[in-house]
Write a sequence for this structure.
């Protein structure tokens, strides 16, 4: 059932005062082909004196009966998705509430979702319950601090595989189905309850000390790197147990790949679930392999951080996600095949954190969280990426040994319990050589980030002074104490070429508006200076004008790949802050990318080029620059020396710069040849070209849709075909109305529809949709579930009309002070993006 509920923190705190010793016995009954299921939930708990009533969270189709302590209770009140139980029906001490009910499966990827393959009629059922979805499956106290044991029984068709958090205890064949009975779980929160059932195939890992499996659809079997996933999982498991000195806390470890999964992955205790989007149907690039491996390790880290020790309430979500995100990168560096983890950390973690932390909706890492709607919105790069980057800064400040000892203390003391910020700090403080409470006030309890600029003075070829200037935006004025590394680079002759090498490195602590770096007077003036060497700091670091001017000649000489990546991070920040022209950045990227020997950095450069081209150039320049980039991409794709990863990236750049009639003609010819330059057009690349032809309304678009769909008739092909066909639809207003009326589509199919609006190639005809978007926003957020509302707001926001979008967004925010929190936040973040575009265009392109 795709309806929504919201738990207020006050109610959660109220229930925690009176309820303890909680456990659940849940029986679920599934039938093949049915869109509904039956359940019985028994809630066992102790009640303390003083409560007026006990509300139980539940979203269901029908409550059949409620029994309290063995007696039928009919005079219950069921409203606002709560079963209200008067305390006079309960006793002090042990109570048992038994609810039998019926329910509908969800179709938006959360709750208990059901997916059926149309071509095979195979069925797959799975749960996704964070932050507040478990009560869509069975009645419960759906809050993280009321941890409980779960005893689960499932009746399901004989041929179905069924898995949950704990190992299977027994199976019994019934007349029409099979009964699966699971062992009781350890004490876990409701959001960590997990269940999958259906026509899954299973692959076992033999010989490891914990039972380990991968569950998956037959349709995806060829795309799952089973041996690699087991290798990453067992290697990371060994590392965590050794590093943390705390054994893996559960009895087995299943990993499941799922269709129509809303998020990326979920750390259900002992039963991790992943979206199939991590599985590439083409040969995967190195970054795709890293992303999958990092997610595998991230979810495994949660078994300790989040599952063994859980945050008391959602303002402590960072206690789960910071560690999982940091270790999801760092631990891969311990595995032999992922030595470039720091490059990915710098590209992914730092840039996502910087972007979100400068939004108008930024918040402290320890965020005030009044309800679960706020929690849902706070699954963002502040809670994940910024928190992970700040952990890296903490390790740099206190040292690896102190950090590791503090984690061991924390996990042992609070095993199978719940914690908040003070618990973490007290455990770490025992081993830390600095005051962590003042550190927390600066880093965890304030929002936004600082910018650091070096100012260096020279006399007779030597440094006379070097000052680090720190700044903060007016709205978030905190100037923090930072630890960083300052590197001075000199030219060094190596064989037949000169390189730039960090010949002197200084560990520096800076705070306040200006910090003079001592001990540098008389040191030779460097060829290049960088003030976040090694990327331990969390701050934007701008390049000085001299370095920026000479970058085209300096950059190829820099020896260390991480420093080159950090330079591009600095350029990205300067573009976004309107300190550096996106056109100049784009041209510099096209010039330097051929000089970059590391593929992941070269791809980052090309991503920057694409973003500057597509997002920030005004219409007057866009067409001209696209033509230039298209020709450049064509030439690159002809090369036989280019790596596979770079060919894939240049193909993406080619598509994003395809705007002229002759471009589409060339693309159509490439489809007939099955090649673009030296890159083979496999199934997914054919789809990407076909969708682009559809947006351009090329005469062969319909032909290619039918060809592609005939070769790819499954659920993924259906979604690609849906987008392509809707791209050809001339009446976009009617298409939008149909999308809003149709409530039977899965969330995945809704997204396929939404992608077909507001494409830049159809900008003129989509302009009339702009007022329609704003007219429908309030009703969407008022009547549709969180997933549809979020997607509608994101996918259909008319960012290609920045002035109009900014004006109408301001009008909606200013004239509707009572907008729901999720809608207001979404509007503000969308507004941030278009106002950034307008600032950049005003700064650099006003004369055009």
């Amino acid at each position: 059932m795709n309806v929504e509920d919201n738990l207020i923190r006050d109610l959660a705190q109220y229930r925690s005062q009176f309820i303890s010793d909680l456990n659940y016995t849940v029986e679920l009954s599934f039938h093949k082909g049915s869109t509904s299921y039956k359940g019985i939930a028994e809630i066992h708990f102790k009640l303390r004196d003083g409560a007026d009533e006990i509300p139980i969270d539940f979203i269901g189709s029908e409550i059949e009966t409620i029994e309290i302590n063995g007696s039928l209770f009919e005079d219950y009140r069921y409203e606002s998705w709560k079963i209200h139980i008067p305390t006079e029906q309960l006793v002090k001490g042990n109570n048992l509430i038994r609810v039998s009910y019926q329910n509908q499966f969800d179709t938006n990827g959360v709750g208990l979702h059901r997916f059926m393959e149309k071509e095979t009629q195979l069925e797959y059922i799975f749960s996704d319950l964070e932050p507040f979805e478990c009560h869509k499956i069975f009645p419960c106290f759906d809050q993280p601090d009321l941890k409980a044991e779960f005893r689960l029984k499932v009746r399901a068709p004989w041929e179905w595989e069924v898995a949950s958090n704990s190992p299977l205890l027994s199976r019994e064949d019934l007349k029409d189905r099979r009964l699966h009975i699971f062992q009781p779980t350890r004490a876990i929160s409701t959001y960590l309850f997990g269940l999958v059932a259906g026509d899954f195939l299973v692959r076992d890992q033999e010989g490891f000390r914990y039972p380990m499996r991968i569950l998956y659809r037959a349709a995806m079997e060829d795309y799952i790197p089973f041996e690699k996933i087991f290798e990453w999982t067992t290697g990371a498991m060994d590392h965590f147990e050794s590093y943390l000195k705390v054994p893996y806390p559960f009895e087995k470890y299943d990993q499941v790949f799922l269709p129509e999964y809303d998020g990326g992955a979920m750390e259900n205790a002992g039963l991790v679930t992943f979206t199939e989007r991590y599985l590439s149907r083409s040969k995967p690039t190195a970054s795709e392999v890293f992303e999958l491996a990092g997610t595998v390790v991230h979810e495994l880290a949660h078994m300790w951080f989040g599952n063994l020790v859980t945050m008391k309430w959602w303002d402590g979500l960072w206690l789960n996600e910071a560690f999982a995100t940091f270790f999801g990168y760092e631990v891969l560096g311990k595995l032999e095949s992922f030595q470039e983890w720091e490059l990915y950390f710098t590209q992914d973690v730092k840039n996502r954190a910087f972007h979100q932390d400068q939004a108008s909706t930024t918040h402290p890492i320890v965020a005030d969280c009044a309800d679960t709607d706020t929690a849902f919105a706070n699954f963002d790069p502040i809670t994940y990426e910024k928190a992970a980057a700040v952990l890296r800064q903490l390790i740099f400040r206190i040292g690896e040994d102190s950090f590791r000892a503090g984690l061991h203390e924390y996990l042992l003391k609070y095993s199978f319990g719940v914690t908040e910020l003070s618990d973490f700090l007290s455990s770490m403080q025992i081993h830390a050589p600095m005051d962590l409470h003042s550190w927390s006030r600066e880093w965890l309890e304030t929002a936004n980030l600082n910018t650091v600029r070096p100012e260096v003075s020279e006399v007779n070829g030597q440094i006379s002074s070097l000052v680090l200037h720190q700044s903060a935006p007016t709205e978030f004025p905190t100037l923090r104490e930072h630890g960083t590394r300052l590197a001075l680079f000199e030219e060094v002759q190596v064989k037949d070429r000169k390189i730039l090498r960090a010949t002197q490195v200084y560990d520096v602590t800076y705070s306040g508006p200006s910090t003079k770096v001592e001990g540098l007077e008389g040191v030779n003036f460097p060829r290049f200076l960088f003030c976040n060497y090694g990327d331990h700091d969390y701050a934007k670091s701008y390049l000085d004008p001299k370095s920026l001017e000479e970058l085209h000649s300096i950059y190829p000489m820099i020896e260390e790949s991480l420093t080159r990546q950090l330079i591009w991070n600095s350029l990205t920040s300067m573009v976004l802050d309107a300190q550096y022209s996106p056109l100049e950045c784009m041209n510099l990227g096209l010039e330097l990318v051929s000089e970059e020997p590391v593929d992941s950095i070269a791809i980052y450069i090309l991503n920057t080029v694409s973003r500057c081209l597509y997002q920030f150039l005004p219409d007057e320049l866009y067409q001209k620059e696209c033509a230039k980039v298209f020709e450049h991409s064509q030439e690159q794709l002809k090369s036989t020396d280019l790596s596979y990863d770079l060919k894939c990236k240049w193909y993406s750049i080619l598509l994003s710069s395809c705007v002229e009639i002759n471009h589409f003609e060339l693309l159509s010819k490439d489809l007939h040849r099955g090649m673009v330059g030296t890159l083979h057009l496999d199934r997914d690349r054919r789809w990407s070209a076909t969708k682009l032809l559809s947006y351009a309304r090329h005469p062969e678009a319909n032909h290619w849709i039918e060809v592609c769909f005939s070769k790819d008739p499954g659920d993924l092909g259906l979604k690609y075909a849906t987008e392509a066909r809707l791209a050809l639809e001339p009446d976009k207003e009617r298409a939008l109305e149909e999308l809003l009326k149709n409530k039977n589509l899965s969330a995945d199919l809704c997204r396929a529809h939404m992608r077909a609006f507001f494409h830049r190639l159809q900008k003129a005809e989509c302009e009339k949709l702009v007022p329609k978007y704003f007219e429908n926003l309030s009703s969407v957020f008022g009547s549709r579930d969180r997933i549809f509302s979020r997607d509608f707001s994101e996918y259909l926001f008319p960012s290609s009309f920045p002035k109009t979008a900014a004006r109408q967004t301001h009008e909606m925010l200013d004239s509707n002070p009572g907008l729901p929190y999720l809608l207001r936040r979404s509007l503000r973040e969308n507004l941030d993006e278009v106002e950034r575009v307008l600032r950049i265009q005003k700064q650099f392109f006003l004369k055009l």
